[in-house]
């Protein structure tokens, strides 16, 4: 049977095996999907080489190995190049390894599943780390009117905007420059993990704003509660992005796109 796996450290909390096994069942694909945590004295490249040599067909890669996977791949998709990180590796027919990044496509797919209009929208992304970077190209492909990046360290936001010299609708801002409201506000900072709010003014939210927090927890995040209190139209957490990036990886490997709703239902049951 074709073998797949997720690599990370730690890995025992990963939901990827659960998600991909359900996808395989749903699409009648014969495959196994495991979880691999390279030991402290083993590099990602060594662990991945062993996996592919023993018959692995593809893997997901999560913290802290997304940059190692980017180095490991023998060729990169356009979106992985711009993201500077890889979350999906695929063995190619010629023996090469394709590095891809499905995180941003996952975000866009989940926004669409939630009926959030992106074409012509004014979008704000808060944060300029790896999570933000992976979303920029897929968001720009949806043709927003404006994509602003705001970050505590403004120079990092500028570095991300500079990755797209041919787009005049992407800009970097400091928090003090935020004055107008947005149609879509995406929180990519790690602040929600520690119950903190990024220092954004209430002015960015109006009654038509949809906010998206890339983090998910059993309860709405502090950022979602803040936006809802200000009258935002929708507040969505990142569970759907997790499932959608997995669906996109599955499609890269198997050429068939699984549905998300059944898996989301099952995950919500487990979280609740
Ligand atoms: P990831 O790869 O998950 O994006 P990262 O690269 O460490 O992680 O980036 C974390 C992001 O969250 C950064 O944009 C960080 O801002 P700085 O670049 O100024 O460090 C942002 N961040 C983390 N905690 C924050 C907080 N309490 N308020 C605002 N921004 C925060």
From TrEMBL:
Q: Which pathway, per its entry?
A: Metabolic intermediate biosynthesis; chorismate biosynthesis; chorismate from D-erythrose 4-phosphate and phosphoenolpyruvate: step 4/7
EC number(s): the record gives: 1.1.1.25
Q: Quick one: a GO biological-process term for this protein? A: amino acid biosynthetic process
- Read off the Gene3D superfamilies from this record: Leucine Dehydrogenase, chain A, domain 1, NAD(P)-binding Rossmann-like Domain
- Pfam families named in the record: SDH_C (PF18317), Shikimate_DH (PF01488), Shikimate_dh_N (PF08501)
The molecular function terms of the Gene Ontology recorded here are: NADP binding; shikimate 3-dehydrogenase (NADP+) activity
One cellular component (GO) term of this entry: cytosol
Domain Shikimate dehydrogenase substrate binding N-terminal, by residue range, is: 6-89
Q: Where is the SDH C-terminal domain?
A: 238-258
Oligomer and partners: Homodimer.
Function summary: Involved in the biosynthesis of the chorismate, which leads to the biosynthesis of aromatic amino acids. Catalyzes the reversible NADPH linked reduction of 3-dehydroshikimate (DHSA) to yield shikimate (SA).
Entry similarity comment: Belongs to the shikimate dehydrogenase family.
- Name this protein carries in UniProt: Shikimate dehydrogenase (NADP(+))
Q: Which organism is it from?
A: Neiella marina
């Amino acid at each position: 049977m074709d073998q797949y796996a997720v690599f990370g450290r730690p890995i025992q909390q990963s939901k990827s095996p659960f998600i991909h096994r359900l996808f395989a069942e749903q699409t009648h694909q014969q495959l196994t999907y495991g979880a691999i945590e390279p030991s402290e004295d083993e590099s990602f490249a060594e662990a991945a080489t062993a996996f592919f040599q023993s018959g692995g067909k593809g893997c997901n890669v999560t913290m802290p190995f997304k940059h190692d996977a980017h180095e490991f791949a023998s060729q990169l998709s356009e979106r992985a190049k711009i993201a500077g990180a890889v979350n999906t590796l695929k063995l190619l027919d010629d023996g090469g390894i394709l590095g891809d990044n499905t995180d941003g496509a996952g975000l866009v797919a989940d926004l669409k599943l939630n009926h959030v209009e992106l074409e012509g929208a004014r979008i704000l992304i808060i944060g300029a780390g790896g999570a933000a970077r992976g979303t920029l190209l897929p968001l720009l492909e949806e043709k927003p009117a404006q994509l602003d990046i705001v970050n505590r360290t403004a120079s990092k936001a500028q570095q991300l905007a500079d990755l797209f010299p041919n787009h005049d609708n992407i800009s970097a801002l400091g928090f003090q420059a935020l004055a107008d409201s947005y149609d879509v506000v995406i929180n990519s900072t790690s602040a929600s993990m520690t119950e903190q709010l990024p220092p954004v003014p209430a002015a960015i939210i109006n009654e038509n704003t949809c906010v998206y927090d890339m983090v998910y927890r059993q309860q709405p995040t502090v950022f979602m509660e803040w936006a809802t209190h200000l009258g935002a139209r929708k507040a969505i957490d990142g569970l759907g992005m997790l499932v959608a990036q997995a669906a996109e990886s599955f499609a890269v490997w198997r050429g068939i796109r699984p549905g998300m709703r059944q898996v989301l239902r099952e995950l919500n049951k487990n979280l609740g």
